Amino acid sequence: MAVIAIREEASPELERVAPRLHWVSLGELSRTIELLHKEGVKYAVMAGQVKHNKIFSSIRPDWKLAKLLLSLPKKNTDSLIGAIAGLLEGEGIHLVDSTAFLAPLLPRRLPDDEESADIAYGREVAQRLAEVDLGQTVVIRDRACVAVEAMEGTDETIERAARLTEGKRFVVVKVSKPGQDMRFDVPVIGLRTIEVMKRLNGTALAVDAGRTLLFDREKLIAAADDGGIAIQAFAPLGAKHASDNPAPVKGKR
């Protein structure tokens, strides 16, 4: 197994666990493809996160990435990562569904009535956002949308919402996009999100079942239990052949 890590984003801990590790800078698409060919890679999995706002940072795209960016009519997440996926496919490198090897990390747990009402409203709002690829997370209190995600990411959206709720409880809803391509850009919840919610009085989290990854699952659930945070997974809105019944993420409650 070979790992290609983005220097500006990936953890140095990869040095300890990856048998063959190559570091590249954000923007080095040509070198990434060269390394994949050198390693004989035919199938690849994207893991982790590169924040969309990095497009507007000081990174220097190489000629291949610059050409790809210029060709895009829109520079939203689907267009950008989808174009990279298409480019890799053209190079004979097939992207595998991000959840293929991570089934134990997919969530399945019970909010109170008030939280449930906020979640139901939040899922409708978040789905509308996801349909136009603006963001996938909303923060709700008393059936009012306090904050919506743009490019800042889930945790910063929660931080912004907490300033508006002034210490009062809120719920967080994160959904997948309609037709979500599970090879990349899969919704992810990590331990830090739970810690942010715990610190700022977020009391419930709702995600899409089968389309969301929980990283450090045991630690995440333990932290949620410790903070009294309910986590619940729902069939994605509009999904075919999926149960509409919510499934609790197993914890102590």
Question: What's the SSE blueprint?
Answer:
Elements: E1 2-6, H1 14-17, E2 20-24, H2 29-38, E3 43-44, H3 63-71, H4 77-90, E4 94-95, H5 113-131, E5 137-141, E6 144-148, H6 154-165, E7 170-174, E8 188-189, H7 191-200, E9 202-208, E10 213-214, H8 217-227, E11 230-234, E12 247-248
Helix pairs in contact: 6-7, 7-8
Describe, in plain words, how this protein is organized in 3D.
The structure is a single chain. The chain has eight helices and twelve strands. It is α/β, with parallel strands linked by helices. The strands form four sheets. A six-stranded mixed β-sheet has the order 6-5-7-9-11-12. Strands 1-2 form a two-stranded parallel sheet. A two-stranded parallel ribbon has the order 3-4. α7 packs parallel to α8 (217-227). The longest helix has 19 residues, at 113-131. The relative contact order is 0.12.
Entry keywords:
alpha/beta; Rossmann fold; Cytidine Deaminase, domain 2; 8 helices; six-stranded mixed beta sheet; two-stranded parallel sheet; 2 domains; 253 residues; globular
What is the H-and-E element order? EHEHEHHEHEEHEEHEEHEE
CATH topology of the largest domain: Cytidine Deaminase, domain 2
Mean pLDDT: 84
Contiguous uncertain segments of 5+ residues: 240-245
N-to-C CA distance: 39 Å
Structural class: alpha/beta
Strand order, sheet with most strands: 6-5-7-9-11-12
Radius of gyration over all CA atoms, rounded = 19 Å
Q: What's the total count of β strands?
A: 12
> CATH homologous superfamily of the largest domain?
LpxI C-terminal catalytic domain
| Overall helicity | 25-40%
CATH architecture classification of the largest domain: 3-Layer(aba) Sandwich
Shape: globular
Overall number of structural domains: 2
DSSP strand content: 15-25%
